[in-house]
Amino acid sequence: ANASDMRAALKGGGMITSWFAMGSVPLIEIGAMDYFDAAIIDLQHGLWDRMTSHLAVSVLGPKPAIMRVAANTMPAIGEALDSGAEGVLVPLVETAEQARAAVAAATFPKDGIRSGGGVRPLAEGFTRYHKRSINPLIGVMIETSAGVDNAAEIAAVDGVDFVFIGTGDLALSLGCFPQIDERHEQACQSVFEACKRAGTPCGIFTTTAEAAAARIEQGYAMTVAANDVDILLHGFAQAGQAARKV
Ligand code: 3PY
Ligand code: MG
To answer: d(Cα 20, Cα 10) in Å, to the nearest integer?
Structure first.
């Protein structure tokens, strides 16, 4: 798999992903099935360390991995791509300048500033690795009110493959958590429209299959149909409650 498969999925009416925060390699085997276009490995809020996220990419095999990095920095983005992941998702991007920094960090010279090296790239052979990793999928997250205000400029940055709305942080930033009000959907809509005008695919975080399908129906290019924490939480809770009833 490579980034161009994911670009095709983004353009072709919706990319459905599964999301992994538990830091569990065997969970990747269970949760990254054919139903999903890519697996997102969450290095920001998840329990992954560098070794386990590296192993997760091996277990994924041909299924593309997108690393949601901890921060918009050159070391965080470089290290995530050194694992062999085909894409990065960069949190909390608020300006076009920050989006350009994310693209530069994910791009080898001369166009960017990414450093060459890493265990997997060297094991694979750096010439071969360089060829397949020269153009990774780059997503930037808009999840603050400042990001929403600058969505048009962010979406227009060269090298940004898609914008991804972080609905949870967006609620916090808008001051509508825990009571979500209409400002939230208005903000999502305005990012969606800005992306549409820029011709940049717009994804959005969702936590259920139903929500994911509804967003794809609305024209969003990427959603999350399942995440490991919610799946386990609901599965265990349901079993515990059901057993009490019999
Ligand atoms: C958010 O909702 O804030 C995200 O970053 C997605 O997990
Ligand atoms: Mg977030």
So the answer is: 20
Identify which ligand lies nearest to the alpha carbon of 224.
1
Ligand 1 atom closest to the CA of 68, numbered from 1: 5
**Is residue 32 within 8 Å of 52, Cβ to Cβ?**
no
Q: Is the CB of 166 under 6 A from ligand 1?
A: yes
Going by alpha carbons, the residue nearest to atom 4 of ligand 1 is: 166
How much is the pLDDT for 1?
Answer: 57
**Any atom of ligand 1 within 6 Å of the Cβ of 168:** yes
- Domains located in the chain, CATH noted: 3-245 (3.20.20.60)
Q: Where are the beta strands (DSSP E) in 54-212?
A: 65-68, 87-90, 137-142, 162-165, 202-204
Helical spans, DSSP H, in 71-125: 74-82, 96-105, 119-124
Q: What is the mean pLDDT of the chain?
A: 96
**CA-CA distances (angstroms) from residue 113 to 20, 143, 177?**
28, 25, 38
| Amino acid 13: pLDDT | 79
Q: Average pLDDT of 62-91? A: 97
Give, using CA atoms, the residue closest to atom 5 of ligand 1.
166
- Answer whether 22's CB lies under 8 Å from 229's CB: yes
Across the range 111-138, mean pLDDT stands at: 96
Region 50-67: what's the mean pLDDT? 96
- Predicted confidence at residue 2, as pLDDT, reads 76
Q: What is the ipTM of this complex?
A: 0.99
Q: Is the CB of 169 under 6 A from ligand 1?
A: yes
**Residues acting as catalytic residues:** 45
